[in-house]
Structures are given as C-alpha cells and as structure tokens.
Amino acid sequence: MSQSHHFHVDQRGHSITVNVGPGREGELELLVNGKVVAYRKEHDRGMNVLSGELPGEPAHPFRILLREPHLVPTPPRCTLELDGVEQPMPERLVI
C-alpha cells in the first residue's frame, strides 16, 4: 500500500473522515466536521483503533476500526462503531 486512503461518512448531521497516510506506517487522522480529533504519527498492520465524539448534548462517543491485512497487500478497511453498531465507511477518491 503506497498510496493514501480516505474514508468518509455523514452521521447524525456530522461529518466523519479518516485519512490514512501512504505506506503501512503512514499517519492516521480522524476528523469530525473538518477538525482533527485524533491523530497517530504511525500505525501498525492488523487492527488500529481511534476514538472520537460527535458534538451534542450529550456527546456521542464512537470508535474507528481500521483493519490492514498482515500478509495480503490489499487496501485497508475502515469501520465506524457508534452505539454498539458497526458501519463500514466507504473510501472516497481525493484528487
């Protein structure tokens, strides 16, 4: 995986975006409404977890599950976990 990947979903009136930097050790960014709420300089193969909150009263915590295969060179998969429900996040093309 030598390219960047970008995942996006709109949930409860808010924008959730995950940016995965190039390479298996690239940075991870989690944005809510365009603002960075979680960041990692590097990530590992396998499962990576980022946590955030959707604004509101009360705030709604959520997790991002980023799965990168150990052995097979395939693109990462990104899942939003909110209120105990997992929802795949579609990858979007960024030019």
Fraction in helix: under 10%
Going across the major beta sheet, what is the strand order?
1-2-3-4
Instruction: Write down the overall geometry.
Output: globular
Count of distinct strands: 8
| Spatial separation of the terminal alpha carbons | 17 Å
Helix count, per DSSP? 0
Secondary-structure class: mainly beta
Q: What is the radius of gyration computed over CA atoms, rounded to a whole number of angstroms?
A: 13 Å
Compact summary:
The protein has 95 residues and is mainly beta. The chain contains no helices and eight strands.
Q: In words, what does this structure look like?
A:
There is one protein chain. The protein is mostly beta strands and 95 residues long. The two termini are 17 Å apart. Helices cover 0% and strands 56% of the residues. A hairpin with a 2-residue loop joins strand 3 and strand 4 (35-40). The model has no long low-confidence stretch (mean pLDDT 88). The strands form two sheets. Strands 1-2-3-4 form a four-stranded antiparallel β-sheet, with no helix packed on it. A four-stranded antiparallel β-sheet has the order 5-6-7-8, with no helix packed on it.
Topology:
Elements: E1 5-11, E2 14-20, E3 28-32, E4 35-40, E5 46-54, E6 60-68, E7 77-82, E8 85-88
Antiparallel strand pairs: 1-2, 2-3, 3-4, 5-6, 6-7, 7-8
